[in-house]
Amino acid sequence: MIYGLFFGDSITYGEYDGVFGGWVDILKRYALQQFHEGSNELILFNLGIGGETTEGLLKRMPYEMEARNSAEGNIIFIGYGANDLAKKNGSYLVAPEQFEENMKIAVQHAKKYSNDIYLVSILPFSKKVDGVESATGKLRVNEDVLIYNQILTHIAAEQSLHYIDFYAALVRDKEILLSADGVHPNEKGYGIMAETAIPIIEKYL
């Protein structure tokens, strides 16, 4: 059996989706259904943690992968940036240069266990939170999303990794695909993310 490991923040975890549990959980159910219908067994682990940045990822990633390493192969998904790019008291939680360095280290960790590595784009923010400080004192702007996504696409191209462009899938209709907080998708948004990702996991079924 092949393992799929999904590292990320609350958007990987599926926060704010009380219907389907988020895009990774939709994929988990799809893979299980396909297995019952005779496909290869693909076990998916949702390793998303709300509020996590790439700093937190680097602390736990080696241990998480060692604990979930399939001899038959692993697929690793890395989806970060929505928290890294948030500013608090005028400073990024993780500045662009450090974000790039952290992602490159994470990719090196992943390469010890897999040749199938997918970098996941950051989603756009709703206009109601774009440049507006939240109750927790965090400030997010869509211009930074473009900067951080550019870093991800550059790393993917440089290291011959796969890139999942959820940004492009949601940006046009973001105002109806994001939840009330303007950051997380709603069930429709997560559904579109899952539809985008299903062809990827089908290659391993």
Automatic annotation (TrEMBL):
Membrane-spanning parts: none
GO molecular function list: phosphatidylcholine lysophospholipase activity
InterPro entries reported for this sequence: Ester_Hydrolysis_Enzymes, SGNH_hydro, SGNH_hydro_sf
Entry superkingdom: Bacteria
Lineage start: Bacteria, Pseudomonadati, Bacteroidota, Flavobacteriia, Flavobacteriales
Annotated signal sequence range: none
Coiled coil: none
Protein's UniProt name: Lysophospholipase L1
Classification via Pfam families: Lipase_GDSL_2
Organism of this sequence: Chryseobacterium shigense
Residue span, SGNH hydrolase-type esterase domain: 6-191
